[in-house]
Amino acid sequence: MDTILVTGALGQIGSELVPTLRTRYEDVEVVASDIEPDPDVPGPYEAVDVTDRAQVEAVIEKYDVDTVFHLAALLSAAGEQNPDRAFNVNVGGLHNVLEVGREYELDRIVIPSSIAVYGPATPDNPSERTIRSPTTMYGITKVLAENLGAYYHEKYDLDVRGIRLPGIVSHKTRPNGGTTDYAVDAFYEAVWEGEYTYFVREDTRLPMVYMSDAIDALIALAEADESDLQYQCEYNISALSFTAKELSERIEERINEFDARYDPDERQSIADSWPSTLDDTAARSDWGWSAEYDLDKMVDEMVHNLRQRTEGALS
Ligand code: VAH
């Protein structure tokens, strides 16, 4: 890898993946890109609307990119608010990246798929070969992403890889438009306000992963020998699985006056359509996936960092 392009670089994952890549690969140029024209971010940055193929081609040509981490997408809840835009960004944008990748013979394209490819008909603890039956536009776009990645790999020998990411918990950039955002918002509101009203029921259990484990997984998959991979874009990874109530109880052990309430909204039906646990045997065997953060370690790190940020802001 000589030059990496990260699309969606200002999002929850991208804002941490870019600095991690720049630290991990000192001799590699990491170009951040997103739709924002002029953000205040360090390092090379290009405003790129991934739905415009010419803009995708221009940035790949300008920097002689050989590897793309393509993160630009609308998430599940935002996708249900605007399904047309979700399709255009999540499928049209990926198609542009794959087409330019084919034309410029990129070495590797890494994409995030999602547990959203599963649906109400999916049994718990599904593997990569379990039925995908999404009921959200986001989930449908991720099924298409997996199938497009496999198609470009088979037909054009383009190396496209991906992970079905669970909900991601992080403290640096708040997620936007996701169904699992409650698992992040609860920490911010607990530290800042001492209370939080979840938009899901207290018994809602979903698979989650702490951000640093998710980023390590994306990089480990990107670095894996292709000969070791039995799958392309559909690897499951599993780290945590907790209910909203279990999360509240752990937060309350650190913030004892934390008041948690539950008032499900339209996102409950999305959460209910996803499995609560995942079989990630393949990722563990093919490219050495394992999670470092359990629930307590994640809660400790989230509360500590958000408290530090709050104290810094107040000083
Ligand atoms: C969402 N955070 O909530 C994303 C993710 C599994 C969930 O894909 O839409």
Question: Could you explain the architecture of this structure?
Answer:
By secondary structure, the chain is an alpha/beta fold. The protein folds into 2 domains: 3-167 and 209-236, Rossmann fold; 168-208 and 240-277 and 294-314, UDP-galactose 4-epimerase, domain 1. It has helices spanning 14-24, 53-63, 76-81, 83-103, 137-156, 182-192, 211-223, 244-254, 267-272, 281-287, 295-314; strands at residues 3-7, 29-34, 45-47, 67-70, 108-114, 160-165, 167-169, 195-198, 205-210, 235-236, 240-243, 259-262. The strands form 3 sheets. Strands 3-2-1-4-5-6-10 form a 7-stranded parallel β-sheet, with helices on both faces. A 3-stranded mixed β-sheet has the order 7-9-11. α5 (137-156) links the parallel β5 (108-114) and β6. α1 packs across α7 and α2 runs parallel beside α4 (83-103). The N and C termini lie far apart (42 Å). The mean pLDDT is 97.
